[in-house]
Amino acid sequence: MNILITGANGQLGSEFRELSPLYSSYNFFFAGCDSLNICEVEAVREYISAHNIDFIINCAAYTAVNAAEENPVDCDKVNHTAVSNLAKVADEYDAGLIHFSTDYVFDGSKNTPYTEEDPTSARAIYGITKLASERVTLAKCNKAMVIRTSWVYSFYGHNFVKTVLKQLQLRGSMGVVYDQIGTPTYAKDLAKFVLNVLSTDFIPGLYHYSNEGVCSWFDFAKMVQRFAGLKGEIYPIHSDQYPAKAPRPAYSVLDKTKVKDTYNIKIPYWVDSLEECIQRIQNDTNK
Ligand SMILES: NC(=O)C1=CN([C@@H]2O[C@H](COP(=O)(O)OP(=O)(O)OC[C@H]3O[C@@H](n4cnc5c(N)ncnc54)[C@H](OP(=O)(O)O)[C@@H]3O)[C@@H](O)[C@H]2O)C=CC1
Ligand SMILES: Cc1cn([C@H]2C[C@H](O)[C@@H](COP(=O)(O)OP(=O)(O)O[C@H]3O[C@@H](C)C(=O)[C@@H](O)[C@H]3O)O2)c(=O)[nH]c1=O
C-alpha cells in the first residue's frame, strides 16, 4: 500500500515519519510543504498519479489559531479549499483520504463530552475552516475518514507543552487559563491509531480521537511542570485575563465511544502519554 503523508514536517506528520519503519508493509511518501503544496491541485494530482497513492493522510493545515483571525483567506485556502481538492483528486484515483479536524468546531456551550452527532458551531476562523474541511472531505471522497482531535502536542514542532517548558525556564512563572476544559492528545498515539486502522478494516466516516481523561489548560501546564521537574509558579487565570484574537471553547471534551467501539481500541490516559513525551524531550535535551 502506498501512503502519502502531506504536511509531513509538522507535529503529526513527523510522528508518522518516526513510526513508519515499524510498518514495513506500507510504502510511505513524506511530503512537506516545500515538496508538495496542497494548495496546488495539479501538483497534487501529478503526485498521486506518479506514485500510485492508495491513501493520503493529510497532516497539512494552517494551525495558527490567533493569526487566522487576521488572515482568514490564507487559512481557508489551506484548511478548506485545498482539502476539497485533495478529496476530489483522491476520489478520482480511487484513493482513500484520512483528514484531521479539531475540537474547535464546537462553541463549548455543553458540559458533557461532545459526540460526532452533536451540532457544531465554530467560534473562530480556524474552527470555521476546519468544519468546512470536514464537510468537503466526507462529501467528495468515498473512502474518507475525518478524525477530530484536540490539544495536540509532540516531541516535534510547536505546541503548548514546549511553550510551558520555555516559559518556566525563561521567566519562572506563568498564568494559565483554568476555565477552558478539554483533553490533550499525544500526536504519537494518534499516528499509531491511524496506522493500525489502515491495517484493519477501514470504515469511512467522522470519528473523535483524543487521549483519555479531562483537564483544563492550567492542569495540563501543571503536569508538564511536574514531569519536567521544573521550578517556578504556574497560577490559574480566567480566559479574560489572557486576551486572544480568537475565542476558544470553554468546554471541548470529545466523546470517543464511536472510535473505541468501531476499532476495538484502548486509548492511553493523557497523563501517561504526557509523561512519555516529556521523557523523550528530556532525553533529547540531555544528549
Ligand atoms: N495542533 C493541535 O493542537 C491540533 C491539530 N489538529 C489538526 O491536526 C492536524 C495536524 O496538526 P499539527 O501536526 O499539530 O499541525 P502543525 O502546524 O504542526 O503542522 C502542519 C504542517 O502543515 C504544513 N503546511 C501548511 N500549509 C501547507 C500547504 N499549503 N501545503 C503543505 N503543507 C502545508 C506546515 O508547514 P509549514 O510549517 O512549513 O507552514 C506544517 O508542517 C491538522 O489538521 C490540525 O488542524 C486538530 C486538533 C488540535
Ligand atoms: C501560552 C499560554 C496559553 N494560555 C491559554 C491560551 C489558550 O486559551 C490556551 C491554549 O493556548 P495555545 O494558544 O497554546 O493553544 P491553541 O492554539 O488554542 O491550541 C489549539 O490549537 C489548535 C490547532 C487546535 O486544533 C486546538 O485543539 C488547540 O490545540 O491556553 C494561557 O492561559 N497562558 C499561556 O501562557
TrEMBL record:
Limits of the RmlD-like substrate binding domain: 1-282
Pathway(s) annotated for this protein in UniProt: Carbohydrate biosynthesis; dTDP-L-rhamnose biosynthesis
GO aspect biological process, one term: dTDP-rhamnose biosynthetic process
Keyword line: NADP, Oxidoreductase
GO molecular function: dTDP-4-dehydrorhamnose reductase activity
Enzymatic reactions: dTDP-beta-L-rhamnose + NADP(+) = dTDP-4-dehydro-beta-L-rhamnose + NADPH + H(+)
Enzyme Commission identifier(s): 1.1.1.133
CDD domains: dTDP_HR_like_SDR_e (cd05254)
Cellular component per GO, a single term: cytosol
Pfam families: RmlD_sub_bind
Role description: Catalyzes the reduction of dTDP-6-deoxy-L-lyxo-4-hexulose to yield dTDP-L-rhamnose.
Family, as annotated: Belongs to the dTDP-4-dehydrorhamnose reductase family.
Protein's recorded name: dTDP-4-dehydrorhamnose reductase
